[in-house]
């Protein structure tokens, strides 16, 4: 009797030691607590970084984000490789009022129109019409009109983005899309498939996207899981390419999804 209990105990220890990854995948990942931003907290036009601040992966006040804080947050919160944070940080820092002497940025800095903040956003107004920082339900309704199935596809996101471009051109007398913004905006679209899905399917659950954009919160309570593999920068470029192909604009772009010059 005793020895069989001992045997059972020993064999369960043995199986844990032999398959450490088994334990890890069985434990559901839960995010840090979500707290809505309060008065005085800095938030900007990026739903990804706003979400990381709302969960406390970035400073909850959204201020003083340096490279280590950004890279730690992107990895811990969304499982994005550090290399990705390094490239994006080099863009983000340009929006700081202290640039080129800055060593950190605040989330609201990202909203300065014409550096990174651009027209044709999926969920933000063009700056000509209204504040481009907060989620805008009117703009989002236009975007979401292209999401006609429960799983959003690359083709649908490409159409939504080209639709926003057409609307901006037709209605905004100050419409502008720099080469950087053109590439950068495709990178933003790519995050649907990489961060809200696991980067393997080219589709993403519409409910997760709606929940994320509207609440700037990880959709864990409705069944979303943080991707289990770390997203490499090559994947952002891959989805950017797929989106551009779906939109029929590949080969025209002068900047990549990180805003870096491309040479054709
Ligand atoms: C340092 C890292 C990052 C920087 C500097 C950055 C910057 C920005 C900026 C400036 C915008 C606004 C562009 C505009 O619409 O005018 C934006 C939008 C966006 N970002 Fe980020 N971002 C970063 C990381 C992330 C991450 C980790 C995610 C995904 C989890 C993400 C997802 C998005 C999406 C989906 C949009 C598009 C919003 C829209 O079009 O309505 N970003 N980002
Ligand atoms: C970022 O700031 C933290 C303290 O707030 C500091 O420990 C860390 O070294 C800084 N990282 C960089 C790259 O400056
Ligand atoms: C939302 O965006 C539309 C279109 O740009 C704009 O007319 C409207 O004023 C914005 N709404 C808010 C609340 O900012
Ligand atoms: C998407 O997620 C929602 C919320 O968990 C779920 O009810 C729905 O069945 C999912 N849709 C698909 C197509 O998997």
TrEMBL record:
The keyword Ribonucleoprotein does not apply. It comes from Aspergillus nanangensis. Keywords: Heme, Iron, Metal-binding, Oxidoreductase, Peroxidase, Signal. This is Heme haloperoxidase family profile domain-containing protein. PROSITE patterns: HEME_HALOPEROXIDASE (PS51405). The keyword Iron applies. Residues 30-248 form the Heme haloperoxidase family profile domain. Its cofactor is heme b. GO terms for molecular function: metal ion binding; peroxidase activity. InterPro entries: Chloroperoxidase, Chloroperoxidase-like_sf. Residues 1-18 form the signal peptide. Belongs to the chloroperoxidase family.
């Amino acid at each position: 009797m005793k020895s069989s209990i001992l045997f059972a105990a020993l064999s369960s220890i043995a199986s844990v030691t032999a398959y450490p990854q088994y334990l890890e995948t069985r434990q559901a990942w839960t995010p840090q607590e979500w707290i809505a931003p309060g008065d005085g907290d800095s938030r900007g036009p990026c739903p990804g970084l706003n979400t990381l601040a709302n969960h406390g992966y970035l400073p909850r006040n959204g201020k003083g984000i340096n490279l280590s804080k950004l890279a730690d947050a992107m990895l811990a919160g969304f499982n994005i490789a550090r290399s990705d944070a390094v490239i994006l940080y080099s863009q983000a820092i340009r929006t700081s009022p202290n640039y080129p002497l800055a060593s950190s940025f605040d989330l609201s800095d990202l909203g300065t129109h014409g550096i990174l903040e651009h027209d044709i956003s999926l969920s933000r107004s063009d700056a000509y019409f209204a504040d481009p920082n907060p989620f805008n339900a009117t703009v989002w309704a236009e975007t979401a009109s292209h999401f006609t199935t429960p799983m959003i596809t690359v083709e649908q996101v490409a159409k939504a983005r080209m639709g926003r471009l057409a609307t901006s051109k037709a209605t905004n007398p100050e419409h502008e899309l720099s080469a950087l913004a053109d590439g950068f905006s495709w990178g933003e679209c790519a995050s649907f498939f990489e961060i809200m899905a696991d980067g393997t399917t080219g589709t993403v659950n519409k409910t997760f996207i709606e929940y994320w954009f509207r609440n700037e919160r990880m959709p864990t309570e409705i069944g979303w899981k943080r991707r289990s593999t770390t997203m490499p920068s090559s994947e952002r470029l891959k989805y950017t390419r797929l989106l551009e192909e779906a939109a029929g604009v590949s080969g025209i772009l002068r900047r990549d999804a990180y805003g870096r010059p491309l040479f054709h």
